[in-house]
Specification:
The protein is an alpha/beta fold and 302 residues long. Helix content is 27%, strand content 23%. The protein is built from nine helices and twelve strands.
Length: 302
């Protein structure tokens, strides 16, 4: 199902994303949120509630995804979860974490969240005892749990950008975040099609631009619904697409890099996986090869 208007609201069949913290305790090469380049910044629960409540008058998502960075770095993650839930912008609240800080999560955290996604990486593996414990907590607190084991990432952006407008269009057309996962991102009163359109322009070493060029200010005037639907279904690339690899960057083994080594040096054309690009042109749902294995726990009463 695509983004559409129903009963006076734009409906996103996937999730709207809220970044609890921009920083992370990991330094994954090709992090889609460029977290290794960001300094400490946490979302304010009250401000988040207010802007999502305003957005909810014209927009509804299947779920709200609280992520980062690493969301469990947020000093009041439970308060943020409740702020998102009471905004009624989505049916359920999901937290996506790397799991390395989950041992310290409170009982209130498990009570507050509906769904939990844990991304496990080779450089910071979870023990079998930890995984067993999280399965048990999920069953006890009726939390839907998904654990993904990632062995690979795809290159995510280029500092120098692309020379070919046609290639930029291809990258945009095959972008899973924009057209398949629909990773709509809320930040500072604005809505973005994807996280890269928010984060890439802020971090380009040789000078970026105001990411609001690729966003829409959340409002409640009579014309906002139409503007929002048009924005979320546009067929032309965003400005950030000139530096972004979307979903078709070269596949590489997961690794962590020092902050000073994190920026990619190649041009965008050199970082494209052209074979995968062609596959995505035919079927945007083609698996990206990043997840090695996954396991899930359905909702069960404890």
């Amino acid at each position: 199902m695509s983004v559409h208007v129903e009963d006076g609201k734009v409906i996103n069949p996937e999730g709207v994303e809220i970044n609890a913290s921009l920083q992370c305790n990991m330094r994954c090469k090709s992090c889609a949120h460029l977290s290794p380049l960001f300094r400490k910044e946490n979302a304010d629960p009250a401000e988040t509630h207010n802007i999502l409540t305003l957005l909810a008058r014209n927009y509804h998502a299947s779920y709200a995804k609280i992520m980062g960075g690493e969301p469990l770095l947020h000093p009041d993650i439970v308060g943020l979860i409740e702020a998102v839930r009471t905004s009624r912008v989505a049916d359920t609240v999901l937290v996506a974490t790397n799991g390395t800080l989950l041992d310290r999560a409170s009982e209130e955290f498990w009570q507050a969240v509906d769904s939990l996604e844990i991304s496990v990486y080779p450089s910071r593996p979870l023990t079998s005892a930890q995984i067993d414990r999280y399965h048990g907590m999920a069953r006890q607190y009726d939390v839907s749990l998904l654990i993904n084991h990632y062995g690979h990432f795809r290159e995510i952006y280029s500092e120098t950008g692309a020379d070919s407008p046609g290639l930029v269009q291809d990258v945009y057309d095959t972008c899973k975040l924009a057209h398949y996962w629909r990773s709509h991102t809320v930040y500072d009163g604005w809505l973005y099609r994807c996280p890269q359109s928010l984060f890439v322009p802020q971090q380009l070493k040789n000078g970026g631009w105001n990411p609001r060029e690729d966003g829409i200010e959340i409002a409640d005037d009579p014309g906002f619904l139409e503007r929002l639907h048009r924005f979320l279904t546009r067929t032309t690339p965003l400005r950030a697409c000139g530096n972004c690899l979307g979903s078709v960057g070269r596949l590489h083994q997961h690794t962590e890099l020092a902050r000073k080594e994190w920026r990619p040096k190649e041009k965008l054309e050199e970082l494209i996986d052209y074979e995968f690009l062609e596959l995505c042109k035919s079927d945007i749902t083609t698996d990206d090869g990043c997840v090695d294995s996954s396991s899930s726990v359905s909702r069960e009463a404890g």
